[in-house]
Amino acid sequence: MPVVAPRGESQRGLLAALAAYTLWGFLPLYFVLLVGINAFEIVAWRILLTLVFCAILITVLRQWGEVGRVLRDGRLLGRLALAGAVIYVNWQTYVLASTSGHVLDASLGYFINPVVTILLAVLLLGERLGRVQWIALGATVVAFVIIAVGYGTFPWVALVLALSFGYYGFVKKDVGGRVAALPGLFVETLVLTPIALIVLAVLGATRGLDALSAPPAEVWILSGAGIATAVPLLLFAASARRISLTALGFAQYLAPSIMFLVGWLILGEHIPVARWIGFAVVWGALIVLSVETLRAGRRRP
């Protein structure tokens, strides 16, 4: 029989999921405050500060033994290095989108993430699609064509974010049972540290580091990048252990919904008719996919 989490644990898990996705939804506003700093420099500092924040938490929680075990396991370390490389692409694309007026494209990327997960299952695991899944996949392709033709630009930001985060989730699911969230995130950022240092060195030598000449308020905001990165990820990990995948799947729509509203109502990004139609097609596909998910969940013992 499946193990059912106690009611209190399920409630805490749901609250953690809602908190994680709410923070992710408003995260573009955080990076908009850093618009005076080069996007590549922001991500480099984000990596280093996340590493420091995780190291402090690991010291407090006495999890260095777990970190050492991961570093000695070559296969596990390789998988986490791959996860780190993929999430670097995701972070860099996300920050570029947030600081260049493409928050709506970012929200589209996370809206189609469930469909990308289905596609990855087909390509990497050889799974077969059901009728509803084919409908969702086809609708997503149609939405991209509508946006590309009507808006005049292919939504590369959305595609890169969806593929990178989808594959990151695939890799993390593969190693999830063998490494805890905090040591895993520490190792991922540790692997990315040389890249961050190279980026800072190149930027410092060619154009100077913006953080060194930025207003004090902006520097203080940048210093919180490690906390802004790690806290939602750790909340997400806590929720995933306490609530069902179905509940977690529905909660994930919260982040792109908030992102969409932030881009539209707060940042004032323009939404032409083609983009409205494209989003409407994606939302329709997600409704169909969600209903089928609920039905499948009820059929299971």
From TrEMBL:
<comment type="similarity">
    <text>Belongs to the EamA transporter family.</text>
</comment>
<keyword id="KW-0472">Membrane</keyword>
<feature type="transmembrane region" description="Helical">
    <location>
        <begin position="245"/>
        <end position="267"/>
    </location>
</feature>
<protein>
    <submittedName>
        <fullName>EamA family transporter RarD</fullName>
    </submittedName>
</protein>
<feature type="transmembrane region" description="Helical">
    <location>
        <begin position="154"/>
        <end position="170"/>
    </location>
</feature>
<feature type="transmembrane region" description="Helical">
    <location>
        <begin position="108"/>
        <end position="125"/>
    </location>
</feature>
<keyword id="KW-1003">Cell membrane</keyword>
<dbReference type="Pfam" id="PF00892">
    <property type="entry name" value="EamA"/>
</dbReference>
<feature type="transmembrane region" description="Helical">
    <location>
        <begin position="12"/>
        <end position="37"/>
    </location>
</feature>
<feature type="transmembrane region" description="Helical">
    <location>
        <begin position="43"/>
        <end position="64"/>
    </location>
</feature>
<keyword id="KW-1133">Transmembrane helix</keyword>
<feature type="transmembrane region" description="Helical">
    <location>
        <begin position="132"/>
        <end position="148"/>
    </location>
</feature>
<dbReference type="InterPro" id="IPR004626">
    <property type="entry name" value="RarD"/>
</dbReference>
<feature type="domain" description="EamA">
    <location>
        <begin position="157"/>
        <end position="290"/>
    </location>
</feature>
<dbReference type="InterPro" id="IPR000620">
    <property type="entry name" value="EamA_dom"/>
</dbReference>
<keyword id="KW-0813">Transport</keyword>
<feature type="transmembrane region" description="Helical">
    <location>
        <begin position="217"/>
        <end position="238"/>
    </location>
</feature>
<feature type="transmembrane region" description="Helical">
    <location>
        <begin position="76"/>
        <end position="96"/>
    </location>
</feature>
<keyword id="KW-0812">Transmembrane</keyword>
<feature type="domain" description="EamA">
    <location>
        <begin position="12"/>
        <end position="148"/>
    </location>
</feature>
<feature type="transmembrane region" description="Helical">
    <location>
        <begin position="273"/>
        <end position="291"/>
    </location>
</feature>
<dbReference type="InterPro" id="IPR037185">
    <property type="entry name" value="EmrE-like"/>
</dbReference>
<feature type="transmembrane region" description="Helical">
    <location>
        <begin position="182"/>
        <end position="205"/>
    </location>
</feature>
